[in-house]
Amino acid sequence: MTASYLRMPATHILTRSDLDDTELPPAEVIGLVEDAYLSYARGNSRCPTKLMMPLPNEARDAVSYSMLGYDGALQQVGFKTSYRQGSESAEKYYTTISLYDDTTGLPFAFMDCHRVGGSRTPATTAIIAKHCAKQDARSALMIGTGAQGVNTLPYLLTALPNLETLRLFRTHPDGIALSLSTFARHFPDRRIELVEDVPDAVATSDIVVAASGRAAHHKVQTAWMKPGGLLISVASKGVEAGALGQADYAIATNEGQMGVTGKRLAGPDGVPHVDAELPDIVAGLKPGRRSQTDRVFAFSSGMIITDIPVAHALATRGIAAGRGRRVELWK
Fold first, then answer.
1. What are the strands, taking DSSP E only, across 75-197?
2. Residue 7 in this model has a pLDDT that exceeds 90
3. Is residue 13 domain-shared with residue 79, that is, in the same domain?
4. Is residue 127 part of a domain?
């Protein structure tokens, strides 16, 4: 009877609290995400363009989207869904991911995706900086203290240990406190400089990461960057619509997804054009920049191929620790 029970199709359901204290060091997450980009560039993984559906009630400003993908390294299929009512509301934002094991043909896990996104997004930022920042980059500015930004500076410093100056533009007290405490946990001997003047901080930083809301500051322009600067937009409303056109070299994690979520950055023809996609840069098929003086603009949009390995690592550790519930939805 026990053997029959274990053969029943079942999935492990993991809540946000189940995963809260599951450790995934920045270096490990960066490695998982970079390997996912390599697998995709080599044709071993699949990642169709994100499906996004704005809802008709403009007063609520709600958005919903889904992603489907296959990680060829892990041989896992993933389905991710997100819904948010109000583009600025973190309280009514719900995101989940389902994993299916393609080697056994069985479901593996269904879980909250908040922690996954909060890990793979800064990992992607760090990978962009690693491959696209100028060779002697020594300073980085983080704009925003939301869920996408809290882990960014420790991940950047992990990927680029030669960074000397780390800056943060502060907006929300709770976000500032969490950003500082998160950074101190990873780098207790380093300090973050809090800044007030965004244009000045952009002009004096080699790497600028914008993951902020639309009203927190003057919208960032690529033209503010000094020669050789790198501006990374993490789905940021705080970046000027002309930022793409102002760049000497433009990249995206995925050009197709930029056409879905980054249309406002397009040129006069309404179509965003980029010089290279991140997976090809990681694989050495395209350069991260043409010269050390290029002002580079990078549009970071989540690809589920990077969610899958991070979710799998979290789920595997959570299940091994006895977290979550095994549910037989199909019996």
1. 76-84, 93-101, 106-112, 139-143, 165-169, 193-195
2. no
3. yes
4. no
